[in-house]
Amino acid sequence: MTGSEKMLARKADGIGWMIFNNPERHNAVSMEMWQAAERILTDFTNDDAVRVVIVTGAGGRAFVSGADISKFESERASEEAVAAYQTQTKKVYDLLADLPKPTIAMIQGHCIGGGTALAVTCDLRICGETASFGVPAAKLGLGYPIEGIRRLVDIVGPSFAKEIFFTAKKWGSEDARIMGLVNRVVPNEELEAFVIDYAKTIASNAPLTVASVKVIVREALKDRGAADEALCDAWVKRCFASEDYIEGRRAFMEKRPPQFKGR
């Protein structure tokens, strides 16, 4: 499915896993890997059995550390090649941000540059206690697109977003938690089990309700008057008209776990 040995994908218990598998380069990402990521996320989107997606990096030392500089000569040597690379990267970021299913970034080790940009496209970020974050654009003279900055601002607010960019510092997990950049900080050895349990909890809940909240939160972040309130209302009505709403009520009355089907 992936078309690249440096991108791994698997499915189990309602969870789709997308794993960046370039540990010798701290999971730095090449064009081939971004193209594989697009295929993985498209497959997860179209598979009703996948209810939650976990994004992580292999090897335990890094989530994603940004672009693979060793590939720059072959993949980003010309203006056209740079544009193609940026287009593909944006496609994956947008796919992940707009995925109709909840997404969790499971972060171990370094989460730098493009890794932070990738993490903030996910709905939730859960990290190990030795994780570190940073956007070193100001040390490299890079310009940063508005979409990535907007996503960061939506999570940490304008002041922290400026601090992250202005200083280009590397931040520890506790700083990230204070900023709101991560939802939870967990001991390294407990991280995977914690995230799997979280994902299973979400996967067991009503898929339509979860999907509706993802849509409505996105609309709520827009300026007043700009939100698509008709779309939000349609999602609420869809939940109330669903078989899952009937199942949820019955399960509550019968004191048993509900069996939701997403319809």
UniProtKB/TrEMBL annotation:
Highest taxon in the source lineage: Bacteria
Biological process annotations from GO: fatty acid beta-oxidation
InterPro entries: ClpP/crotonase-like_dom_sf, Enoyl-CoA_hyd/isom_CS, Enoyl-CoA_hydra/iso, Enoyl-CoA_hydra_C
GO molecular function: enoyl-CoA hydratase activity
Annotated EC: 4.2.1.17
Pfam families named in the record: ECH_1
Key words of the record: Lyase
Family of the protein in this entry: Belongs to the enoyl-CoA hydratase/isomerase family.
Protein name: Enoyl-CoA hydratase
Taxon lineage: Bacteria, Pseudomonadati, Pseudomonadota, Alphaproteobacteria, Acetobacterales
